[in-house]
Give the backbone structure.
Amino acid sequence: MSFPKNFLWGGATAANQVEGAWNEGGRGPAKTDVTTGGTVSEPRYITYLDKDGKPGKINQFDRLPEGATYYVNPDYYYPNHKAVDQYHHYKEDIALFAEMGYKVYRMSISWSRLFPKGIEKTPNQEGVEHYRDVFKELRKYNIEPLVTIWHFDTPLYLEQELGGWQNRELIEHYVRFATTCFTEYKGLVHYWLTFNEINNACAFIDMVNEMLHMTKEETDARYREAYQLLHYQLVASAKAVQIGHAIDPDNMIGCMLSTNCAYPMTCDPEDALKTEHVWENATYYCGDVHVFGYYSPFTKRLWREHGCELDITDQDLADLAAGTVDMYTFSYYSSNVVTTHDVTEKSGGNMSTGAKNPYLQYSDWGWSLDPTGMQYFLEKIYDRYRIPLMIVENGLGAYDTVEEDGSIHDDYRIDYYRPHIQAMSRAIDNGVDLIGYTTWGCIDVVSAGTGEMRKRYGFIYVDMDDEGKGSMARSRKDSFFWYKKVIASNGEDID
Ligand code: BG6
């Protein structure tokens, strides 16, 4: 196995999925706070009051009805409110990460903990100090923080009153938030990611529309919105990169994309072409802007196909060019199959549609298990961009059983990780500049897709269930001791 000497081994979480304390310390609400729990087959819902004050709910990917307002309905349980209470347990959690030998911990800052509504001119000092304490605690153990500035949690006020990222004004609010982070945590944090899985906005449209039975016109309208929203986020990201570099030239600032590793189902040239177009829309669209600093030629085709007339100014284009990222990071869980032919067997589950790959196994949530796809993605992306790469999410959501003596024998998780680590090593051997790996999540978290606790990802078990019952006690799974060994041997000992 060939991992560089300073390879950054660690784990990853997101504020809204671990912190809890949703209304403590001056924090304002985010959209995840009005999102219920779901299951593998039942979607998460967003709750609201309609224009007549009547409570209602919609699929988390759907739009609020005209005149409705977001609403925390006392009849529902909202899993992100408590999450796994890392807000109060961070010292204990960091000590456990240190015990595993982490070199890096990826986490995010809750925007509404620093700016409760998002529009304030100065931050909530209690929130600022909370994260300072967390970063100091990490540094105590020589763990490098890797901080995601936005991880799916725009303050609810910005969503409700300003229409969310459809509004250009959000750029300035985000930039103020990012600037505060760079200024306050200068010297404590060097690794930053501007937007988590920014490409989901366009990568997931076809899947979501299939789920919501959208017509072609509705789909086009969604694409138009997505490309506009993405433009504002990409400009916000580029401005943040420029400011982050000006505040501290040592800052290493990256983009973060979800992987849509697509294969053609057949050798029909139409399948090959369609697959390439999926790569363009789902992966290269955002990646190229982040890394090259401009929209690639194929974007004109996409905008034409969906009838887009985007609000893009000359100053925006100058900002994109000036704010290119230092590293490309991504989440990798599974791969997809693309075809122009009729599909007999479909993959099913949460956040997974399209043809089933007969060469792969699938998780209990319908996600394909494909370590070779990780190598494929690493090599393809490095070949395109030639800047350092980091895998900042990879893991298996699975049901865990706690034995009578409290032990948790999660060999399925170890069996998932082992070939992925081998895949990374092969990609490094093939010349890829991979600088780090943070598994998702190092500790059990609330699932973003289903809101479940039972879809467990951690090396550390948290005693918490889907109804919010549990002591929050932390315990070590078998995979905890295994990953400790992997890190100590710099990826040599993976048995
Ligand atoms: C990524 C997100 O999409 O995948 C995480 O960045 C998320 O926030 C992870 O938790 C796994 O997805 P899920 O739906 O199983 O939580």
